[in-house]
TrEMBL record:
Phylogenetic lineage: Eukaryota, Metazoa, Chordata, Craniata, Vertebrata
GO molecular function: metal ion binding; phospholipase activity
Compositionally biased residues, Gly residues: 1-23
Cross-referenced InterPro entries: DDHD_dom, PA-PLA1
Entry's family note: Belongs to the PA-PLA1 family.
Organism field: Dicrurus megarhynchus
Gene of this entry: Ddhd1
Protein name per Swiss-Prot or TrEMBL: DDHD1 Phospholipase
Region of interest (Disordered), residue spans: 1-42, 542-573, 612-648
Domain named DDHD: residues: 455-698
Sequence ranges of Low complexity compositional bias: 553-572
Length: 712
């Protein structure tokens, strides 16, 4: 610290501290020791001004404790600070000092105003930053900058150029009992005593502290050990440019769903939670890789005007709070189903995704050169809007195609006179010609109205969380195919991999696999591994299994169940889980409530809960219920799959890749309570963080393994 003051030995970590500022009668091993990156660096022998590497800068978010910047960031902030003229005494050129990019490029620090702010999103609260010179023993928290500057100035005035003790390690083990303060400094509520150049203590001047100090001193304790807090000059670890974050090889755009009007900063907090959990997982499982994944929030809702305040003006005053909450949340679903505002929502998200990508590439020019990848994590309605942007789905174009088809059919089917037929043909040709002219005109104007929205990047992985996308696709007429390919709902040329993550009790989430192959309604989703599972089986090696091959009493009449062999298409569904009702039976009770999206979230919630009571009744009615219809349809369309006694399927007709992934339920959680909380519980889940990184790092790990083999 003072050159040698903090050099209390070699190599002990921060975790070795347990002194807690309790005094000086501790052994040398109990204190954190200054880590010297170079190892054999010579100690300074005289007191001098602190070097840039000994100062440490800190930031504070949400009024919590001060957190240190990593060495790479701190050193660059300190150099910018010195360029301004340290302590405000120099002439300096404040305008010439550029903001310093910190925290993996997500934030910038304005040294002049001592504030930090995010680069990729807006934040009302600025994050204060502080220059640390003197630190509290044990916690290594910095003293407030004002006090720190006064102590540093006093220290240099009194001791600058003085010789430091030869061996600090010997000195530290001696108690300070017999020593009087050789110098003292009075602060507003505290005072600082120097017992020697290397022994500095901070004392509180509050009355209670004085009484405690007098009593303990009379009992024979030293002044320092009884109430003083030991201070260190210079941080426990020196800042180096080598202490820098790994390069970003993969960026993840995190897209919110409904309700952001109600809480605009929520997606930023949620993304921060996801980023923090991902960092923990990276440190534990992926520390051998030289790259890392960065999460960026996509806040697309707050910039949209939509109807202005029309909806607010027509809202009645009674139970206003509840109505405002619904207007700010469920109203987004109604906006999206409105032909008037749908394009505005789509365009808002598309522009924000492209803006963020362009900004990231401009600040990280090597990202594209080195083949950086982009994935999207979407939540709730955000999944549907993201899907529509990627695929360019447009209800207006769909309507035009339907009209054209009807006209063609009308020409073919109806009997009509020669004159009528000639006029209709002429009308048809004229309309076709008009459409061609309109299209050419749109091309000339370079209008984006008729073009599908385009992203500036290819999506590597599209992760849906708590997604109603399957309901929207089913309502658009998508029916199960026979190929087992993801291309049936999302072409691989647009997005390499689609993954649908959901909590088993999330009332807004639906399965996607039965939209590709019908019999997957009776195959359980893949269970996401718990974060702390030792040697989990890789997801691609997990075999599909039946939902529940055991008999459920109310599932079918005895005559049927006795004769039918248990196969994915005939075996009853799992008790209290109703995936057996195929997502494609839109007209039936299971999805009807969710389909009436205009009724808001309430309809979605209750339709999902309604399954548990509605399903057994419809099953009991035999072949007229939804299960009966499904059996008939499946028997005609696809033969039952062979099965094995273990409950796993024989590999005949399977999906190329599994798409539905289900979080494991907690052992003690209430299903009805978790149905309320599960839709927003994805952000801080370590299980999900590990799942996301497993797929995003998969290729990196494969390439690393391959290069290692090539080297061998």
């Amino acid at each position: 610290g003072t050159g040698g003051e903090g050099s209390e030995g070699e190599g002990a970590g921060l975790g070795s501290s347990d002194s807690g500022g309790s005094g000086f009668s501790l052994a040398a091993t109990a204190l954190p020791e200054r880590r010297r990156p170079g190892g054999g660096r010579p100690r300074y022998e005289v007191v001098r001004e602190l070097g840039a590497e000994e100062v440490r800068w800190f930031y504070r978010e949400d009024r919590k404790t001060w957190k240190p910047f990593i060495g790479y960031d701190s050193l660059r902030i300190e150099l910018a600070f010195r360029a301004l003229g340290s302590g405000g005494g120099g002439a300096g050129e404040p305008a010439a000092v550029e903001p310093v990019c910190v925290r993996s490029g997500l934030y910038e620090v304005d040294v002049a105003s001592a504030e930090s702010y995010p680069v990729y999103w807006n934040q009302t609260e600025k994050i204060p930053v502080m220059r640390g010179q003197w630190f509290i023993d044990g916690t290594w928290q910095p003293l407030e900058e004002e006090e720190s500057n006064l102590i540093e100035q006093e220290h240099l005035n009194r001791f600058k150029g003085q010789q430091l003790q030869e061996s600090f390690d010997m000195e530290i083990s001696k108690p300070v009992d017999g020593k009087e303060a050789i110098h003292s400094l009075k602060l507003s509520r505290n005072h600082v005593d120097w017992h020697s150049v290397d022994e500095v203590y901070l004392y509180s001047d509050a009355t209670t502290s004085k009484i405690a100090r007098t009593v303990t001193q009379k009992l024979g304790f030293s002044k320092a050990s009884s109430s003083g807090t030991r201070l260190h000059r210079g941080y426990v670890e020196e800042a180096t440019l080598e202490d820098k974050p790994p390069q970003t090889s993969h960026i993840v755009f995190v897209v919110h769903g409904i309700g952001q009007k109600m809480d605009q900063g929520r997606i930023i907090k949620n993304t921060a939670m996801m980023r923090d959990t991902a960092r923990k997982v990276e440190e534990k499982y992926f520390s051998n890789l030289a790259t890392h994944v960065e999460f960026l929030p996509v806040e697309w809702r707050s910039k949209l005007t939509l109807d202005g305040d029309t909806v607010d003006s027509i809202t009645p005053d009674k139970v206003r709070g509840l109505r405002d909450m619904l207007n700010s949340s469920a109203m987004d679903i109604m906006y999206y189903t409105s032909p008037l505002y749908r394009d505005e929502l789509v365009k808002g998200l598309q522009q924000e995704l492209n803006r963020l990508y362009s900004l990231f590439c401009s600040r990280n020019p090597e990202f594209e050169e080195k083949g950086g990848k982009v994935s999207i994590v979407s939540h709730s309605l955000g999944c549907v809007i993201t899907y529509d942007i990627m695929t360019g789905w447009n209800p207006v174009r769909l309507y035009e195609q339907l009209l054209q088809k009807e006209e063609e059919e009308e020409l073919e089917e109806r009997w009509m006179s020669y004159e009528e037929q000639r006029l209709l043909e002429e009308l048809y040709i004229t309309k076709q010609r008009l459409r061609e002219i309109e299209e050419r005109l749109h091309e000339l104007k370079a209008s984006t109205i008729s073009k599908p929205p385009v992203l500036k990047f290819k999506v590597e992985n599209f992760f849906c969380m708590g997604s109603p996308l399957a309901v929207f696709l089913a309502l658009r007429g998508i029916r199960p195919g026979t190929s087992g390919s993801q291309d049936h709902i999302l072409p691989r040329r647009i997005c390499n991999r689609l993954l649908n993550i959901f909590h088993p009790t999330d009332p807004v989430a639906y399965r996607l696999e039965p939209l590709i192959l019908k019999h997957y309604s009776n195959i359980s989703p893949v269970q996401i591994h718990w974060y702390n599972t030792a040697n989990p089986l890789p997801y691609e090696h997990m075999k599909p299994s039946f939902l529940n091959p055991t008999k459920e009493p109310t599932s079918a009449p005895d005559t049927e169940s006795a004769s039918a062999a248990p196969s994915p298409t005939t075996s009853p569904v799992m008790v209290r889980r109703h995936y057996g009702e195929s997502i494609t039976n839109i007209g039936k009770a299971s999805i009807l409530g969710a389909a009436s999206i205009g009724k808001g979230l309430g309809g979605m919630l209750f339709s999902r809960f309604g399954r548990s009571s509605a399903a057994p009744q419809t099953m009991e009615t035999g072949k007229d219920g939804p299960e009966g219809d499904e059996k008939k349809a499946t028997t005609v369309g696809t033969p039952p799959l062979p099965h094995s006694s273990s409950g796993f399927l024989e590999p005949t007709v399977e999906l190329e890749h599994r798409i539905d992934f289900e979080l494991r339920e907690g052992l003690v959680e209430s299903r009805y309570w978790s149905a309320v909380t599960s839709h927003t519980a994805y952000w801080s889940s370590l299980d999900i963080a590990l799942f996301l990184l497993t797929f995003m790092y998969k290729q990196d790990q494969e390439e690393t393994d391959k290069s290692n083999l090539d080297t061998i």
